Amino acid sequence: MKVIGITTTVPIEVLVAAGYRVIDLNNLFITSKDCSKYIDIAEKDGFPKSMCAWIKGIYGACMENNIKEVVGVVEGDCSNTKSLLEVFKSLGVKIYPFVYPVNHKFEDVKKCIDVFLKTFHVSLEDAEKVRQKLNKGRYFGRKIDALTVQGKATGFENHLYQVSFSDFNGNVDEFISVLGEKVLAIEKRKPEMKRIKLAYIGVPPMTGDLYDFVERCGARVIYNEVQREFAFPRFDTAKDLYEQYYDYTYPYNLEFRLQEIKKQIKEREIDGVIHYTQAFCYRAIDDIVIKKQLNIPLLTIEGDKANILDARTKIRIEAFLDMLSDAKED
């Protein structure tokens, strides 16, 4: 089977219909036993120190795993992806740019998806057939999200399984089967409610140990913003591929994202928010607006190359959770 890498969530239905095995280069990078080697590869090849570790990790993962075709989102995600694709192209990798239009008009989203369909010689009908199959998996993703709110699934499980929907772990049938089994196993657990209910917003973290750490401190992340969007939780309200990707909040304007964030904070009765930003990422500037818009205690933490929390960040998280705990007692 042909293999194609992606730099973030794209209309995977089109790629699967075209006969590809889809690999999210972010997941390939961060789940490696030695993810730092991918960053080292990029820096040895000339990528500057002052650049997002995700971009360098994506590059290293692509080179090390000999991936010859890549879809890169050049509008609506990382501002460095356009240049990254130029580097890939110079090295003989076949590139396919994809755009989430900044104006977020339905007709423009439709045009971008139509171009994507045409590029891979896939009909809308064939892509829709794949979408119906993938929606079986998305149903399980939504179940895991609900089980997290109920205190049965952990914050890390919520993160891990939802973030994996960008590429269905590179194997659609196997991933859907694993999800079904996981849901059955989690449903049998007794609820374990934590005192503090947290929301995590921003790009998925480099530091996956964040979730276990906050649970040891008596809290739990019960809402992962971007990861949940990767799983398309409103899949069954979209009548077609166009509506599904028009409704996807992450790549569009911050105001649109915040509407869903505010809704989930209210519905899940969130006590506090952790906003994760990545060093050297333009999205860190969003924090200015987010703090003004969210009327709830918020802690901003920044990640760089390390894939575990540093001591300073742990202290800041502990202090934040202590503050939230004290507030609940007042």
UniProtKB/TrEMBL annotation:
Pfam family membership, one: HGD-D
MF terms in GO: hydro-lyase activity; iron-sulfur cluster binding
Keywords associated with the record: Iron, Iron-sulfur, Metal-binding
Domain of life: Bacteria
Cofactor names: [4Fe-4S] cluster
Record family assignment: Belongs to the FldB/FldC dehydratase alpha/beta subunit family.
Protein name per the record: 2-hydroxyglutaryl-CoA dehydratase, D-component
Origin species: Thermotalea metallivorans
